[in-house]
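Write out this protein's structure.
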Amino acid sequence: MYGNIQLSTVEKLEYFKRSFSDWSGYLGCPIFIRIRGTFAKQGVAYARRFANVQAVEGQQFKSWRVQAHYDIRQMDSVYIFLFLEDHMLSANPPDSAKLLEELFRQNCDVFQYSWFRLYANIRTVLDERHLGSVEALGLFTAIPNGPLKDQELLNCGRLFLSLTSIFRKTFFLNVLASPRPLLRKYTPLGPFDIEKPASCNFFQGFIYGLPSSELGICIDDENLMPGSSAISRGLFPKNVVERQSSHQLTRSIPSRIRNFLKTSFGGEGGVVRRYPKLRAFGGHALHVVDIFVNTLHSNYLVARESHGIYYMSRKGYMMKPRDSDGWE
């Protein structure tokens, strides 16, 4: 199990304590957790109470994917469970040993362990059309190389590579090292840019798995499905407001500047308040600036932290490892 998380609020620390306790007991595997943020010390101290855990405070690299690549490439493991502090274990999870047996038997590369309700449409399409293999605990299918042409699966609109996944280590390292997408929507200081929709085809050619029953539950994020979080279902004893989407926290433009622009050009009394098309253009312009800044920032950090931006490999341009600090 690997985690590279930020604990910046008391709520996040409480989520972490619950989810870490759940998953460490369920998986029973070696754990490496890297914690940043205001409550990093408390998180590390809590994690070290558990057996077979290596907990580290802070980070060596600012880029999330450079840091994850550095950490994971040194692990002696076939599969990596990517831990997120805000996803807890369900009340009746499947047997972890049997689940791992299925992953090996199906030669699975990516297994989605949370957001069970959100992925119901994909499971339905795969099941009704008998695409892939059905096991006791999971449903597995082969995602082909090249552009995905199955319109039914594309219409499901879900991420085929999600942070809430169990990854084959070699596959995950390739995703982390890839320069694609060329334009980065989210800040390189966080992990969201490794998530890929079904329409994104440069990483395809892998075995994809979904659980047959609920395994993980997001604690506080409704993700556009009211009533789906653990808090709203009464499974987590916290009276807090659920988030609509954690991806909202990854803007590149400082909030003061963003708020000034929104107030000046789109707010009450703004200069373009009466011009909807111009207001819409301003919103798109801010989004483009976000992408531009995040792309430059990402490439700069990779260039600085991995000794050269990219090198050519059989699978295209990949992030070049350092020659020191344990890198090959």
